[in-house]
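#help-structures
NK: newbie question, is this the right format to request a structure? protein is Transposase
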Amino acid sequence: MNSDNAVAAALLAKMGYTTREAREVRREFLRMFMKLRTRLDQGRLALIMSVADLYFKPDRTQDEEILRELIDHYPEEGEAIMELMPAWKRWGYEEGKAEGIEEGKEEGQAELIRKLLLHGFSPEAVSEAVELPLDKIKKLM
């Protein structure tokens, strides 16, 4: 754990450790990673992090706690850690995608309501057809 070797950092994730030790191993891996970050290019860093992500079971709550600890210790490096965390990137992507889908549904529904109103349907009929309260329909008029 005290090594600054990139291969050691990647293998740390594969080591046999107990569930109780997992958090400490993950924290030490990220600490090692902070040291390696200044010596390796982005591609190599991303590769090491991706390999580690295969073996570490990402735990969002635990990883966020570890990030806060590392930010306290390395305040200027918090963004750099998050940029190199494939699991966190995945979570961010999934959240963004879900939000985008929801926004798309709402925009599509609003467009449909506007078209129905433009084609002469009454607000009451549209409200019943799309199963939305009448006041929401009237806001779109």
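mod (FA): yep, format's fine, and the tokens are attached above. The chain has two domains: 6-84, 96-139.
NK: thank you!
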